[in-house]
């Protein structure tokens, strides 16, 4: 691997204009495809194989006129305080409002009248109208959204309180501020670290090109592959973070090789052969973790995982080809002014140099490894304790900011119709024999009405063939409450009993039922997913480090960091600790997708730091250093750059805390805090402590395994003697040769 990437690096350095041109052309081509894409992403969630999804699909077949995939909106109308919506004047105002809504788009199939549909509250102050569209949410145009907003505003001008919710409303405008904040902070850290605009600009430029290609590809394929609206944000988040970090490692290694006396082409080639090998294997673990999300069999999660894996793959390819090419454009400026001055005054450099902070930190740990290990582990365990209270849920309009129309409509309905109105359970009863379906629907409706926690059950509505009925069950409790979830379980116990259905099929769906099915699906998938991801990554790390204990330690350290991040998520997003600091307006259950998505991403990133840091430690050990000295040498050369890389990734993720979408906000926080825990507590503290305690045992491998494993040479052993450093004696080589 090192030899191959050495050749790639030298070739890219030599043919820098061609490499740059190829990447720019690719970016332009994908960007043009994205610009020509007419579709848009959606925000729907499908769950193949679950009862809720089966019921949804059945409704699509049996009630085609309802167009289950079409956009919809619920318009909530309220009379001024003390007045009734049923008064003659307000009825006329509502009629005009509904007429304006009907005329707002040619895609509208139906607008219900709240007076005819009897969707008026008991106190007659509030009502709602249901708007159904012929087109899918993603097919509605900006004009459709604008004209609907205008119709609602005209209703408000008449003195009514008018709010709306549903998929027909204009999606929140995507803001680039999150990416911009993280990018600017990353740029500042790079400039301070390298002391050179040229060196700092290379990781930023490569990250921009990589992310530009990825996000453009996601945009171009959004409609074709029915990608979710969160897919691009996740790909962008990861693409920026790993793109900067991977390039940072190669540029840093290039500067180190130049400091050792190698000329620019050879230093770029050697940096690509050593740090580039670490980048490839680190990227491979991330890709495995993200692509492994497909085992959950949730289309939304699979698409997000594959898009993010694609972003990481592009970041790796850009790093090992474009970074050496960019070094060819500024071979001296990439070193920084301070490095060039030190080269001219080596005696002064050695007299005044101070040991790097990372080296001093390693020395501190090596003096008391057991105590440091215990304190670090106990600290993470304490932070992880809130994770035992983790509650999962799906976002609804109740989790929207209080200023949005969706949240206002949600609150108005809850106040006027009861808290359970926003989370109804839909019961679908079907049988080939219409008589059987009718009997089962009637008996089930009567039985469910008498259940505790049920506010009302609507009469059965049949399709034209009479073989399928819909009953809506309104709970007395809020959608996310345990009472509503328990009610859904109780209803399913009734509907799954053939004695209660007479042989008809009875399925429960709706937001709450969907939430239950999501949680169950993730619960059943999390352990197979962990086994797959950890198992494959373990094998890769055994191959890289030729050790059993080092990969095992890496996996256990990951579990500590991810559990601690879950604990922090619960404390902030569920309990509301420090919520004002993070701009969080609403607390509640963590989105069901979060745990498994966080596990996949954090595992990949954790292995990044494991590979970058421990590969340099093993490199020193392979080249003859004692185990403890190898730890010190590894921290001396990689500790600082791992710290910088972790800070950059943390700031990039933290920038997404300001996003409007609740899941992206929580994901940004969870990933940022997980990186901090994993990089600074696990990799920079627990790893050296464990390596010190294991001593030489850390690098042992059973002989029979050693024989069957191929040698990937991530430390660049074969690069120890191929090129003589310019102006530097070959003092290293005999030692390396003797060791080998």
Please describe what this structure looks like:
The protein has 740 residues and is α+β, with helices and mostly antiparallel strands. The protein contains 25 helices and 11 strands. Strands 6, 7, 8, 9 and 10 form a 5-stranded antiparallel sheet that branches. Strands 2-3-1-4 form a 4-stranded antiparallel sheet, with helices on both faces. Strands 5-11 form a two-stranded parallel sheet. A hairpin with a 5-residue loop joins strand 8 (461-462) and strand 9. Helix 9 runs antiparallel to helix 10 (299-329), helix 9 runs antiparallel to helix 21 and helix 21 (594-622) packs parallel to helix 23. The chain is elongated and about 90 Å long.
User: Structural class per helix/strand content?
Assistant: alpha+beta
Shape: elongated
Helix content: 55-70%
Tally of helical segments: 25
Percent of residues in β-strands: 5-15%
Residue stretches low in confidence (pLDDT < 50, at least 5 long) are 346-352, 722-740
Mean pLDDT: 83
Largest sheet: 5 strands, antiparallel
Instruction: Calculate the terminal CA-CA distance, rounded to whole Å.
Output: 18 Å
Estimated radius of gyration: 30 Å
Topology, number of strands: 11
Classify the oligomer.
single chain
């Amino acid at each position: 691997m090192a030899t191959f990437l050495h050749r790639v690096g030298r070739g890219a350095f030599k043919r820098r204009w061609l490499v740059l041109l190829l990447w720019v052309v690719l970016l332009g081509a994908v960007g043009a495809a994205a610009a020509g894409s007419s579709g848009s992403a959606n925000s729907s969630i499908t769950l193949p194989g679950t009862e809720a999804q089966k019921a949804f699909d059945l409704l699509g077949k049996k009630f085609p006129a309802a167009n289950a995939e079409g956009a919809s909106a619920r318009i909530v109308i309220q009379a001024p305080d003390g007045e009734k919506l049923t008064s003659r004047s307000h009825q006329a105002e509502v009629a005009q409002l509904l007429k304006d809504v009907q005329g707002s788009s040619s895609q509208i199939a139906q607008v219900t009248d709240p007076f005819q549909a009897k969707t008026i509250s008991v106190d007659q102050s509030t009502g709602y109208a249901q708007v159904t569209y012929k087109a899918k949410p993603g097919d509605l145009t900006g004009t459709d959204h604008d004209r609907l907003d205008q119709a609602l505003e005209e209703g408000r001008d008449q003195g009514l309180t008018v709010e709306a919710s549903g998929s027909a409303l204009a999606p929140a405008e995507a803001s680039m501020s999150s990416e911009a904040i993280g990018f600017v902070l990353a740029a500042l850290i790079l400039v301070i670290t390298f002391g050179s605009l040229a060196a700092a600009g290379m990781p930023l430029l490569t990250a921009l090109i990589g992310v530009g290609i990825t996000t453009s590809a996601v945009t171009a394929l959004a409609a074709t592959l029915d990608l979710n609206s969160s897919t691009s944000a996740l790909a962008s988040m990861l693409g920026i973070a790993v793109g900067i970090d991977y390039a940072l490692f190669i540029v840093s290694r290039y500067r180190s090789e130049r400091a050792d006396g190698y000329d620019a082409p050879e230093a770029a080639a050697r940096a690509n052969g050593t740090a580039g090998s670490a980048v490839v294997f680190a990227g491979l673990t991330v890709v495995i973790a993200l692509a492994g999300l497909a085992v959950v069999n949730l289309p939304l999660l699979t698409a997000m995982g594959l898009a993010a894996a694609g972003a990481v793959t592009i970041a790796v390819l850009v790093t090992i080809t474009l970074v050496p090419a960019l070094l060819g454009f500024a071979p001296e400026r990439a070193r920084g002014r301070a490095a060039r001055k030190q080269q001219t005054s080596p005696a002064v450099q050695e007299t005044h140099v101070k040991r790097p902070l990372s080296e001093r930190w390693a020395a501190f740990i090596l003096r008391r490894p057991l105590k440091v290990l215990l304190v670090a582990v106990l600290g993470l365990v304490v932070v992880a304790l809130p994770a035992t209270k983790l509650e999962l849920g799906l976002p609804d309009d109740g989790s929207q900011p209080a200023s949005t129309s969706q949240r206002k409509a949600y609150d108005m309905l809850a106040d006027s119709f009861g808290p359970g109105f926003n989370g109804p359970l839909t019961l679908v009863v079907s049988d080939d024999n219409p008589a059987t379906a009718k009997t089962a629907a009637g008996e089930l409706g009567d039985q469910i009405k008498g259940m505790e926690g049920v506010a009302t059950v609507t009469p059965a509505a049949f399709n034209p063939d009479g073989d399928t009925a819909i009953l809506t069950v309104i709970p007395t409790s809020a959608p996310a409450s345990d009472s509503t979830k328990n009610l859904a379980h109780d209803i399913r116990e009734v509907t799954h009993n053939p004695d209660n259905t007479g042989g008809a099929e009875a399925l429960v769906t709706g937001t709450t039922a969907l939430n239950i099915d999501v949680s169950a699906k993730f619960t059943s998938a999390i352990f197979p997913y962990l086994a797959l991801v950890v198992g494959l990554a373990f094998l890769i790390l055994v191959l890289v480090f030729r050790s059993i204990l080092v990969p095992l330690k890496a996996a256990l350290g990951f579990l500590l960091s991810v559990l601690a991040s879950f604990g922090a998520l619960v404390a902030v997003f569920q309990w509301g600790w420090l919520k004002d600091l993070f701009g969080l307006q609403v607390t509640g259950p963590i989105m069901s997708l979060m745990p498994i998505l966080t596990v996949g991403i954090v595992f990949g990133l954790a292995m990044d730091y494991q590979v970058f840091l421990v590969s340099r430690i093993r490199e020193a050990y392979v080249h003859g250093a004692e185990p403890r000295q190898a730890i010190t040498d590894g921290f001396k050369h990689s500790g600082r750059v791992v710290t910088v890389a972790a800070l950059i990734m943390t700031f990039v993720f933290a920038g997404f805390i300001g996003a409007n979408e609740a899941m992206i906000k929580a994901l940004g926080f969870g990933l940022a805090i997980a990186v901090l825990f994993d990089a600074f507590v696990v990799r920079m503290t627990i790893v050296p402590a464990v390596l010190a305690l294991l001593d030489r045992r850390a690098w042992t491998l059973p002989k029979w395994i050693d024989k069957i494993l191929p040698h990937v040479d991530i430390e660049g052993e074969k690069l120890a003697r191929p090129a003589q450093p310019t102006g530097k004696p070959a003092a290293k080589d005999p030692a390396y040769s003797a060791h080998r």
